[in-house]
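Good morning N.,

You mentioned wanting to compare the apo and holo forms, so I went ahead and generated the holo version with iron/sulfur cluster. This is what I fed in:
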Amino acid sequence: MSINWIETSERVLSGGTVTKDEARAMLAMGGAELTQLLAGAHRLRERTFGDRVELCSIINAKSGRCAENCAFCAQSAHHKTDAPVYPLKTHQEIVAGARQAAAEGSHCYGIVTSGTRVSQGAEFEQILASIREIRSATPIEPSASLGLLDEASARALAEAGCATYHHNLETARSFFPSICTTHDYEEDVRTIRLAKAAGMKVCCGGIFGLGESPAQRVELALTLRELDVDSVPLNFLNPIPGTPLADMRDLAPRDCTRIIAMFRYLLPLKRISVCGGREANLREFQSWIFMAGASGTMVGNYLTTCGRSRETDLQMLRDAEVRVHAC
Ligand code: SF4
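and this is what came out, ligand included:
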């Protein structure tokens, strides 16, 4: 299929949408056609975000021993990995992390805990207290990623001032049973709907390079478009020894740029952030994420793996001629 991607981006700029076939074609582009695809994605990003990009940071507030069996995850109790295992960090540690992230220019700070779902009780109350203090004492937007939600927990988080609930669908519905068998995809979708209904913004994306097909990458993007999520984190598998995907090496740097561009064409107005696995998968192409349409990236460390130094990432932003959107 030969498609003029500049014309496609013009159609999207005037409110048109991209079809499933066009999205699938994007993932097969190479050579000059890939360059044209990225040029269109770049225009779409600039139309909504100008030259500004957003940085986000997370704290792994409670690590390990998760009862779920997500095949990529170092924190699942079903796999034997070297991931740290510790209970919920103190209120002071969590708030100190937010202050540091704000001072370093991140606009969003995610409190992430391992485990299937939020459970009411002392831990949840402490997280709510941390969110309240982050809201009142720092300019950064607090976000939480605590697993599956029920209606009462979603309401409590929103009332405490949690700006965004983060919950990834991880992959396409049709591929999910190959990645996780301990809960159903529909439970994740329900959590997204509950978070939105409670008044929080929703940050929801996935991880690529798990063995999913290109068509399934498009399937995930279409599901997120239908759910109308607010921001989309794109992660690329960094294979962890001890997990079932330890030997999976499915993505080349240009595959990552094709995926980012496809998401930008399908979700032209949404925040799209490149998160885990940037260094391992994009390597020398990391600065291309903005040309491919990303409007942000995660800085600092990830949940169980280390990111690059802050100075290296800031230099990349300067070289890419984008400015950090301060909080
Ligand atoms: S991705 Fe989340 S739910 Fe899945 S095993 Fe890891 S911590 Fe548990």
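The CA atoms of residues 252 and 262 lie 16 Å apart.

Happy to go through it together on a call whenever suits you.

Best,
F.
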